[in-house]
Amino acid sequence: MKSAVETLNPTRVRLTVEVPFEELKASLDAAYKKINQQVTVKGFRSGKIPARVIDQRFGRGAVLEEAVNDALPKFYTEAVNEADLNPLGQPEVDITELKDGELLAFTAEVDVRPTLEIPDYSGIEVTVDPVEVTDEDVEKSVEQLRERFATTSPVERAAAEGDIVTVDLEAKVDGEVLEDGVASDVDYTIGSGQLLDGIDEAVKGLEAGASATFTSQLKGGSAEGKDAEIKVDVKSVKARELPELDDDFAQLASEFDTLDELKADSRKRLERMKKFDQATQAQEKVLDELIKLVEVPMPEKLLEDEVNTRKHNLEHHQLGQIGMDLDKYLEMQGKSAEEFEAELKEQAEKGIKTQFILDEIVNKEKVSVGQDELTEHLVRRAQSSGMSPDQFAQAVVEQGQVPMLVGEVARGKALATVVEAATVKDTNGEVVDLEDEDETAEAGETVEAADETTEA
């Protein structure tokens, strides 16, 4: 077999391959055997039809077509390996010559990974938010915990802000009660904004047993988007009572004996959260700066496929699961179809560039992935997918996705290497030390957020 490579542009090549006919023998034998099993000829047992009879009855061309279809992937792969190419996606193959008994010639055009020059990235500087936990932050955190331990009790008075009312609802459009417009025993916290626009004003001042009507635009159901006349019957009013902020509350809500200890722990927890957010922000900003440094030719076919994949996943998986179509989603987002397409293309480009650049750094820095790192990453991915680690691991192996996970970990480590070399300061001018953070794990999450491309 002879092959040659022609570079069409930085991300696409054309392979020209010539195969001596004798190298098709195995595929020809397989073709005759396959046809033998599929047809019957009077006078011959199944599977025992001579090749000359198959040629006479069904045509030599049918055999050659079957043999070539069988052999092409093998010869294409050999040519790719011989040229040391990194193909992206499936090739466009064109058979240019097929001479029975002499020669098979074909061309294959395919996108390839571009060759990248990674410049010195040690000069990257980014600014992130400082880790500052105020007394107000702590008080808010404790107050949220206090809300979780609130109790309710019936009251014989008019409903007020913050009360919980149990109501029956009936919605009419054009004077007709909607089939899906009736609900009973609905608990609603006045002021939460989690039900219908206008209900707060309608129920405030009502006691149990009282009713009111109001007009509201329906947010879902058969008459979604239409204005409806809503009747609300208040069945009960309950007041929320918060526990006193004292040592008894600390003992009730935590493992601490005093309120001061609870607040101190809340401060530490908030500091850890803000350090995590700071590290994530540093990862994202360093990645953005790294992408600016490297010129990445964009394979148009890969980009087109990636945009289509992201759009399909959004429409048929994310939105489909909540019963929403793309038009409604764009309306809620306040975006036109053109703005959505442009945003999708920008995200896809960033994902592709991220993968190419970090893979190049993996090779340049000789980044390796240990079993413990892979296991840790697998457990984290399992948690985000809602599966147990064992279930997720089994699915990964069955779908042949182990190399994909290894690539994700390696790219995370590559980004951590870049972050370590960069200068990260907070808005106060202080240099941020990320060495105590789990850089690899966080870098992996940052890479996954940017790089949702299909592995090539």
UniProtKB/TrEMBL annotation:
Single Gene Ontology MF annotation: ribosome binding
Residue numbers spanned by region Disordered: 435-456
Domain PPIase FKBP-type per the UniProt entry, residue ranges: 162-209
Database matches in SUPFAM superfamilies: FKBP-like (SSF54534), Triger factor/SurA peptide-binding domain-like (SSF109998), Trigger factor ribosome-binding domain (SSF102735)
Origin: domain of life: Bacteria
Subcellular location: Cytoplasm
Gene3D superfamilies: 3.10.50.40, Trigger factor ribosome-binding domain, Trigger factor, C-terminal domain
GO biological process: 'de novo' cotranslational protein folding; cell division; protein transport; protein unfolding
UniProt-listed Enzyme Commission number(s): 5.2.1.8
Catalysed reaction, written as an equation: [protein]-peptidylproline (omega=180) = [protein]-peptidylproline (omega=0)
Alphabetized UniProt keyword annotations: Cell cycle, Cell division, Chaperone, Cytoplasm, Isomerase, Rotamase
UniProt-listed Pfam families: FKBP_C (PF00254), Trigger_C (PF05698), Trigger_N (PF05697)
PROSITE patterns registered for this protein in UniProt: FKBP_PPIASE (PS50059)
Main EC class the enzyme belongs to: isomerase
Gene Ontology, cellular component aspect: cytoplasm
Note on domains (UniProt): Consists of 3 domains; the N-terminus binds the ribosome, the middle domain has PPIase activity, while the C-terminus has intrinsic chaperone activity on its own.
Role description: Involved in protein export. Acts as a chaperone by maintaining the newly synthesized protein in an open conformation. Functions as a peptidyl-prolyl cis-trans isomerase.
Family label: Belongs to the FKBP-type PPIase family. Tig subfamily.
Protein name in the entry: Trigger factor
Organism: Streptomyces triculaminicus
Phylogenetic placement of the source organism: Bacteria, Bacillati, Actinomycetota, Actinomycetes, Kitasatosporales
